[in-house]
């Protein structure tokens, strides 16, 4: 899926500058005055211009925004806000950066770097996990990274390559609502209509294998209208005996 940033701003000059500079990094720019008019889960990140467009006053809208964007959310501002306000943006709503008064080249560099981190976080996490441990224990599941093997309790699961990759993607993005587009991009490498149509089938098959009660799933749940959520209270690591 091509990388694309959603710029929320009414400043057309800012939009033009960002579009030209980000194009050099193969990142497209989409501009909107009203972010909720777009399918936010289909963009690689959000740049919010606070000088022309206010953040939602409703806390729940900000929380939904954060849960639906599997990429960085950066705030641009001309005037520096209070330390308490900035800390709230970063700690309460988990936005990624607050930029005030920096030159355009630095703004672009921050956007590109943060997108890179999000795009590569699965590989970074799995590489770190494989270095520290050969096994991951997720609830009743035990994942042997060296053998590409998953056990449900004492039962060895026969996962297909796609199901195994799906499971690792969900584990790496635990407790985050993931849209079908995000899943298709990460696991299949594309977001064509054909891919989106088969996602539900593959997830249903994976659920039958990893859930103790597939008809009443507790780990891999469906969030109607949004996508899927993999609930994980904590991943444990252990060495292979």
UniProtKB/TrEMBL annotation:
CDD domains: trans_reg_C (cd00383). Keywords: Activator, DNA-binding, Phosphoprotein, Transcription, Transcription regulation, Two-component regulatory system. It comes from the Bacteria. GO terms for biological process: regulation of DNA-templated transcription. The keyword Transcription regulation applies. GO terms for cellular component: cytosol; protein-DNA complex. Residues 133-232 form the OmpR/PhoB-type domain. One of its GO terms (molecular function) is transcription cis-regulatory region binding. Coiled coil: none annotated. Residues 133-232 bind DNA. This is DNA-binding response regulator.
